[in-house]
Write a structure and sequence with these properties.
about 290 residues, five-stranded antiparallel sheet, four-stranded antiparallel sheet, 11 helices, binds flavin-adenine dinucleotide
Length: about 290
């Protein structure tokens, strides 16, 4: 049973921020409602004021610029990302990920801003965006600022968003030459949230001979999406071979900090991290060698 609340529909960012200010800390932002309504139905969240930003059109866009890269407004839906020709051309891994995220109905309502602001460690977009070195933009009545997405997740369902702030934009830089990003989640039921997921980004040197840079980001393997930095270091500057990738997988499994729950035990999740890390780094390596 959902508690009574005051409903406010904002049509501009200013209106939303003004309403946030008026609501004196007893409010929740709602966008697609795909995550929040579940918490409200369970009585885990009972705000006095619900501020709906779904109609804030100025936050709903997908722009690409060859210098600055990709900018996605926070109220852009998963479905819009999935169907974007720009994203398909420059960041195809995001389209593939969206194809496997929930049902079309959820993708039609759920937004990128809501997904990240929810702070779920099993978010699908988060590992890929961190692998791509994305930043998020936040705004309050006082100021606007940006933060690397990898620093945005603080704890389980807790983010760096301060009281009074809205997430307004996701920015993804241009990928360096000879870079490939790949992602896979392991789940039992198709399109459900992953039991574990891994995104890998590999940048090869000019000759395609050695790994110049690597990012390995684990989903649902700790309280927040997690970079396996020790595993990444094993690849940097190295010639990649299958033995090295096997050891990288072992290192990532050591670095993660998964829980045991009804979906899987901690040990099972670590085994999945190892297997998916080996698979994803191999795939990213092969794709990076083949790209311009
Ligand atoms: C059946 C089902 C299956 C799902 N499967 C997946 C899956 O496979 N992978 C996956 O990643 N996710 C999955 N999800 C989660 C869902 O896709 C995301 O949570 C969704 O993107 C949330 O967006 P929303 O706009 O609906 O957020 P809301 O539910 O409206 O809000 C979520 C939270 O974010 C806050 N918020 C929203 N927008 C902003 C903003 N701009 N600034 C600040 N705070 C904000 C809200 O206050 C709330 O705390 C699933 C959800 C459902 C219901």
């Amino acid at each position: 049973m959902i508690h009574n609340f005051n409903y406010h529909r904002a049509t501009t960012l200013k209106e939303a921020l003004d309403q946030v200010e008026k609501s004196k800390e007893d409010y929740k932002i709602i966008c697609g409602g795909q995550s929040l309504l579940i918490l409200m139905r369970q009585g885990l969240v009972a705000p006095e004021n619900l501020i709906d930003i779904k109609s804030v059109k100025e936050m709903r866009y997908i722009d690409y610029d060859p210098k600055d890269g990709l900018k996605i407004g926070a109220t852009t839906t998963h479905r819009e990302i999935e169907k974007s020709p720009l994203i398909k051309k420059y960041y195809p891994v995001l389209v593939e990920m969206e194809n496997n995220l929930a049902s079309i109905q959820t993708r039609n309502w759920g937004t990128i801003g809501g997904n990240l602001a929810h702070g779920d460690p099993s978010s699908d977009p988060a590992p890929i965006l961190i692998a791509a070195n994305a930043t998020v933009k936040m705004a309050s009545q006082e100021k606007e600022h940006s933060l690397l997405l990898e620093d945005f997740f603080v704890d389980i369902f807790e983010t760096a968003l301060n009281e009074g702030e809205l997430l307004t934009e996701v920015q993804v830089p241009i990928l360096p030459k000879k870079t490939a990003i790949v992602y896979e989640k392991f789940n039992i039921i198709k399109n459900h949230q992953g039991i574990v997921s891994v995104a890998a980004s590999i940048t090869m040197d000019q000759d395609g001979d050695r790994c110049k840079d690597a990012r390995i980001v684990l989903g649902a393997a700790a309280a927040t999406p997690l970079r396996a930095k020790n595993a990444e270091k094993m690849l940097s500057g190295k010639k990649i071979d299958t033995k090295l990738l096997e050891n990288v997988g072992i290192k990532a499994a050591e670095e993660c900090d998964p829980v045991s729950d009804i979906h899987a035990t901690e040990t099972y999740r670590r085994d999945l991290v190892k297997a998916l890390t080996i698979k994803m780094t191999k795939k990213a390596w092969e794709h990076a060698k083949a790209t311009g």
